[in-house]
Design a protein that fits this description.
The complex is a heterodimer. Chain A is an alpha+beta fold. Chain A is about 55% helix and about 15% strand. Chain B has a single domain, classed as 3-Layer(aba) Sandwich (Rossmann fold), CATH 3.40.50.300. In chain B, helix 3 packs across helix 4.
Chain lengths: ~400, ~240
């Protein structure tokens, strides 16, 4: 009972660190799967803070920019470019309705996110150039609108236009910020013209011809877009360019901050546990006053008594720490199994080695700090008074 | 050169501003190898005197020398070393670790000594043998009788081969038969050269001593040598 606080604290630390690391790994592999040759361009300035959000929604990315970026003279290492427009719209089939996230894209979408239709096909070049009314739907969209019926080749209505279903994606689930089962892909040309009625794009996704050429390509893109937008001062860029490497850094920063925060919460329980240990040690010192007196009478120095009680306190907390580590590791293992089995996430169990050492270190330190006071009290007792204690 | 020398020794307990004198100027010498009994009615200061002589308590006035060195000049660690090596204590309440075995209890002072750990078992077993408890060496002390417990305490007191053994009413909690056995054991230790200082209020235990210091109200009333000691050898004759 006495070491419960320590057990809970260490368990929490282990759990948080393991899950934090697991989440980071999961997101990182997902981000990595998008491809390290990928460069994203968004309109507006890079947001400088939470209040700067508005500036991301601008209309600075135009068809003209796509043409300029595609020119080998401007961006020599660009292999493919995909303009994106997106938004939410209701899709109808008969009496069924569903609100998927509509993406106006090219066939590059499949390659970048590594998702290919399990039935049907992707867009052709002609369909994109020709404003074709074709759609590829996610698995949930299919289920909601068609149930178990055949969907391929059927026509669904979005904003009054009929779209022929040419492909259906397999179930993929959530990947970073997007649920792939709830999307509907149409050519970006069609989306811009007929669905959203806008003349600009929400994103450009560019693939460089190799990983080494990514930094060069980023520079080329910036120069090309500045020329196109008549910008001389880089501070006034109305777009921002982000590579996957940067995105990965951002992700790991976020998870680290999150982990730290949760650990701060866990450490509160450690402090509570430490005070519990201190109480127990104080009781133990009182209970064993006679023993202390006797030990002194037969030759124990103050230091001997101090070390004895400190050691007991550290062993007590150390035991709590070890139990906590075992519990924490098993809980995180169970959680990782649940997450991967029931939520179809590609979650890997990470044994938090740093968490283990941190846990043991913290447990030892708690024992040391909270054991010091009772141990000192024990060591300062006069032998005869201690022996007389009833 | 006396082993212990006290001059005008005073001890005043002070609690909440009230001063209670326990010793009011006590002077005597004790030589190496003596067997001294300190007697007196309760409240006479005999236990206080024993605790001061055994470095368990501090005097408030006068002089106390041990081994020709003033007790004021011993540091805390030196006192701990002294208690460990030169002094053995036997208490009325035994003061054993009840959850430990006989051997573990006897080993306890070795823990704080500079004797090598490999020797502990041997040294402690020899001490247990000396008090005649070899057959119970691995028993928990809680299973022992009062007389046996006191033997364990004596074995613990002599494990470091001290020059003095202080005994504070060692028979006080025992029936007269086991009390007698304990006193014979203490007497045998004296015969081997250990100085014995014994506090008692029972005349029959004091009769084992060769000198009796009688205290009353914190002062020495008498300090007598006993010529004819109540010592009967195994052969039935007076020694």
């Amino acid at each position: 009972m006495t070491i419960l606080g320590i057990v809970i604290g260490i368990t929490a630390i282990m759990l948080v660190m393991s899950l934090g690391k697991g989440a980071e790994n999961l997101i990182l592999t997902q981000v990595q799967s998008i491809g390290s040759k990928t460069i994203a361009i968004a309109p507006g300035r890079q947001p400088k803070g939470p209040t700067d959000f508005i500036s991301t929604f601008t209309d600075s990315l135009k068809e003209k920019d796509v043409e300029l970026l595609e020119k080998k003279a401007n961006v020599p290492h660009l292999s493919k470019i995909m303009p994106i427009v997106f938004g939410s719209q209701i899709a109808y089939f008969g009496n069924e309705t569903y609100r998927p996230t509509i993406f106006g894209v090219t066939d590059l979408f499949a390659k970048i996110y590594d998702i290919y239709p399990s039935e049907g096909r992707l867009f052709t070049e002609e369909e994109i150039k020709g404003y074709a009314d074709v759609v590829i739907i996610g698995s949930k969209v299919k289920d909601e609108l068609f149930g178990n019926d055949e969907a391929l080749g059927q026509k669904i209505k979005i904003k009054g236009r009929s779209f022929k279903i040419i492909g259906i994606f397999p179930q993929k689930g959530q990947l970073s910020f997007l649920n792939f089962d709830e999307i509907a892909l149409i050519p970006y040309t069609t989306a811009q013209q007929y669905i959203f009625g806008i003349k600009y794009f929400h994103r450009f996704i560019i693939e460089a011809d190799s990983e080494e050429n990514v930094p060069q390509t980023v520079d080329d893109i910036k120069i090309t877009l500045r020329n196109s937008h008549n910008i001389t001062d880089p501070e006034k860029d109305d777009f921002f360019v982000e590579t996957q490497a940067e995105a990965m850094e951002t992700v790991s920063t976020i998870t680290n901050v999150l982990t730290l925060f949760l650990m701060a919460v866990a450490s509160i329980s450690l402090i509570v546990g430490g005070i519990g240990i201190m109480n127990i040690m104080l009781v133990s010192v009182t209970e064993r006053t006679r023993e202390i007196g006797l030990r002194k009478a037969i030759g124990a120095t103050d230091k001997d008594i101090l070390f004895q009680f400190l050691a007991e306190s550290i062993i007590l907390t150390g035991m709590g720490g070890i139990i906590g580590i075992i519990l924490g590791a098993s809980f995180s293992f169970i959680t990782s199994v649940i997450l991967s089995k029931f939520f179809a996430l590609n979650w890997e169990f990470v044994f938090p080695l740093t968490g283990m050492f941190l846990g043991l270190g913290v447990a030892g330190a708690v024992g040391l700090i909270f054991g010091l006071y009772p141990a000192r009290r024990a060591s300062l007792k006069s032998p005869i008074e201690a022996l007389r204690y009833e | 050169m006396p082993l212990i020398e006290v001059r005008d020794l005073e001890k005043i307990y002070e609690e909440g501003g009230v001063k209670t004198p326990a010793l009011r100027g006590v002077s005597f010498d004790i030589k190496q190898g003596e067997f001294v009994a300190i007697m007196g009615p309760s409240g006479s200061g005999k236990s206080t005197l024993l605790h001061i002589l055994g470095f368990l308590d501090k005097h408030t006035g006068g002089k106390h020398c041990f081994d020709d060195k003033n007790s004021d000049n011993y540091s805390g660690d030196e006192i701990a070393k002294l208690r460990n090596k030169k002094i053995g204590f036997v208490f009325q309440m035994f003061n054993l670790l009840s959850r430990a075995t006989v051997l573990e209890n006897v080993k306890l002072p070795l823990l704080y000594s500079d004797i090598d750990e490999s020797q502990w078992e041997k040294v402690a077993t020899a001490a247990v043998e000396q008090v005649g408890l070899l057959h119970r060496i691995h028993h928990d002390v809680s299973q022992l009788s009062g007389g046996e417990k006191q033997r364990v305490a004596i074995a613990r007191a002599l494990v470091n081969n001290p020059s003095v053994i202080f005994a504070d009413e060692p028979t006080g909690n025992l029936d007269s038969k086991s009390g007698g056995q304990i006193m014979e054991l203490i007497e045998a230790l004296n015969d081997k050269g250990h100085t014995i200082i014994l506090v008692t209020h029972e005349t029959y235990t004091a009769e084992y001593a060769e000198r009796v210091i009688y205290l009353k109200d914190g002062e020495i009333e008498s300090d007598k040598k006993i010529i004819e000691r109540h010592r009967v050898g195994k052969d039935g004759f007076f020694k």
